Amino acid sequence: MLLRAWRPEDRAPFAALNADPTVMEHFPAPLSLGESNQMADRIAERFARDGWGLWAVEVTVSGGFAGFVGLNRPRFSARFTPAVEVGWRLAQSYWHQGYATEAARAALAFGFEWLELEEIVSFSSKSNLRSQRVMERLGMRRNASDDFAHPGLPPGHPLGPHVLYRLSRSEWTLARDPEQRTSTPTSGPGAASSDSSELDAGSSPSAGSGRRPSSGAASAVEPSLTIG
Ligand SMILES: CC(C)(COP(=O)(O)OP(=O)(O)OC[C@H]1O[C@@H](n2cnc3c(N)ncnc32)[C@H](O)[C@@H]1OP(=O)(O)O)[C@@H](O)C(=O)NCCC(=O)NCCS
Predict the structure, then answer these.
(1) What is the pTM of this model?
(2) To test ligand 1's pocket by mutation, which of 71, 101, 126, 164 has the most ligand atoms within 8 angstroms of CB?
(3) Looking at domain 2-227, does it have CATH number 3.40.630.30?
């Protein structure tokens, strides 16, 4: 699996998954082609600005675009914002195979090791138990006092009630499987990886330099993450 920058040819399969009522069950509505393309534009703009974001997920065995997994700054205001969230949306044919969890682990590693974030959150509507299971598999924790009503939805909307899961850098460090522990984050992308995930220096001049960027330089990086 590869987490990579978006390509123009991702737009059609992205529109198809955004139009799928099952994929969009926990969102207000499926997206039209125009709405899907607008979302792809926003993702691309953020990548250009930050050098990271919601990566396109490519399942390398099939060469197919599966959806997105990555990091994002929520645009709305809530008690827990500003924050960086980890999020995912995959086409149904890629569910039930562990891709979301595996890709999200790589995104968390990127956020903690490269961006040096102190905390990464994730949230979903209360009804989205499949997504919450991914959060739990990642070792994220929910505190009911963090539950919130999504400010983008009108009061009383059935998808309004949301749960928030958090993962701190120290919890993430403690929970990591020793086999997946990176020896030293300053020894570069190859070493900032495990057997199952690695930062691919191919598209990243900074990553290719063999050094992790300082937090300030992280925004200049446009890495891909190769997994499995
Ligand atoms: C949320 C979403 C990404 C979860 O997908 P998923 O397939 O359930 O999650 P994972 O990719 O982690 O896969 C876990 C499943 O793969 C199985 N699996 C198989 N091999 C595995 C492996 N090597 N590692 C982990 N899980 C594996 C697990 O047992 C689990 O099975 P289950 O679906 O029968 O419970 C997907 O449902 C989705 O895209 N939904 C629509 C968009 C959405 O709601 N996004 C979130 C908004 S908050």
Answers:
(1) 0.84
(2) 101
(3) yes
